[in-house]
Amino acid sequence: MLQVAFIRENRETVLKGLAKRNFKNAEEMVDKTILADEERRAIQTELDAILAESNKLSKDIGDLFKSGETQKAAIIKQKTVQLKDKSKELTDNLQQKSTDLQELLYLIPNIPNEIVPAGTSAEDNLNVFQEGEIPNLHKGAMPHWELAKKYDIIDFELGNKIAGAGFPVYKGKGAKLQRALINYFLDKNTAAGYEEVQVPHLVNEASGFGTGQLPDKEGQMYHDATDNLYLIPTAEVPVTNIYRDVILKESEFPILKTAYTPCFRREAGSYGAHVRGLNRLHQFDKVEIVRIEHPSNSYAALELMVNHVKGILQELKLPYRILRLCGGDMGFTSALTYDFEVFSTAQDRWLEISSVSNFETFQANRLKLRFKNKEGKTELAHTLNGSSLALPRVLAGLLENCQTPEGIKIPDALVPYCGFEFIN
RNA sequence: GGAGAAAUGGCAGAGUGGUCGAUUGCGGCAGUCUUGAAAACUGUUGAGGGUCACACCUCCGGGGGUUCGAAUCCCUCUUUCUCCGCCA
Predict the structure, then answer these.
(1) Could you write out the DSSP letters of every residue in A217-282?
(2) The CATH number of the domain where A193 resides is what?
């Protein structure tokens, strides 16, 4: 969430940013927030004065008791009763106003970076880079779900039986290929300096709030009501929350983490042809990279992350492109996002396989993730994350683009991880 | 799952109703000494709100209560430790 002080002091910038996102009722929301903040501070000031007086009187009573002047003490005691009533009332008001303010702040998305293109939908995203050859497939080339069936490497019906739609079962070389991809991605990430971590796949409410999944995306996560835990929609949540409520030393920057986790998404309301096969799942595997950066370095870091993911796709020899997301298509918490899409030749469409974002201080503010700057003051850090990479659509692209009449030709980089060169 | 104990600043650990946001030690930072470092000595060192800056306010696991006054008493939740049970 944005800092109130920032909104207060940069009203125009905030409004401009929200306009880029096509955020509705921006002016109303922002002014409501500023007003709530003013009211909150006014109540706080009033309350503080009463508490100060009340503290003083209590001390006086203490002194009077010590010197045996109990009668005087009794008189002062009566005075405090009124103060107490007033302070109780103000405390309630303050709490209410703070909650109101908090709720407003939760509703305001991050301000897009200068270079984010204006726009309302995926149509307006900016294609900033593209490479890799789109293969000419042989006659009879198939989409991945048919290939999966033909070679018996992914069983959607079986997953359906065990859990439901969107929970595939990977079999034989399909399962092995999954494991190979995970190991390959993790190795690439650790080689680039990211420390590998294994994290819980369920998180508590505080973690959900920390990275911004709660309160607004509640319905997209699986929730265990008995213990009030959420199945993670991405490793971003547990990994970034390692640094919730942490004050770093400036020398600790940068922090680089990578984690493999399954990801669980309810994806309520998504049905139809474009979610077929591996295109959209309730459970999928992903290897994530997370960085905690000094504000002055976060955009250089974003660049590094983009180049890192590029390197992997080059090595896999998959045709891909990079989009700079427009204001309307960007995630709630992001200031700048690059999406990677692999071309699915048999489906003749691009599939998103990675999303790399700089959140600036938006998450850090919720997380209370700070560092001590050179002046010794605490300042919010910047958080970034990206997929490196999400498995199902990489697999879809791989199966479709690497198909030959003789079978699926595994990219060279993966062969040492798979232990086979062909799926046939 | 059952019984008992505990939760205090980066860490260790005092404090059991009144100038306590908190003794002390370690660690961190700055300085003195030193060619430099170490050691020693001196000083400094939690977070948030508020203010031009002070003042002032809040926070001793979370929430609630008693009291003029709570780190300290009561209730409750969470977590940790010890013992027992179960167990990959």
Answers:
(1) TGGGS-EETTTTEEE-SSTHHHHHGGGTTEEEEGGG--EEEEEEEEEE---TT--SGGGTTTTS-S
(2) 3.30.930.10
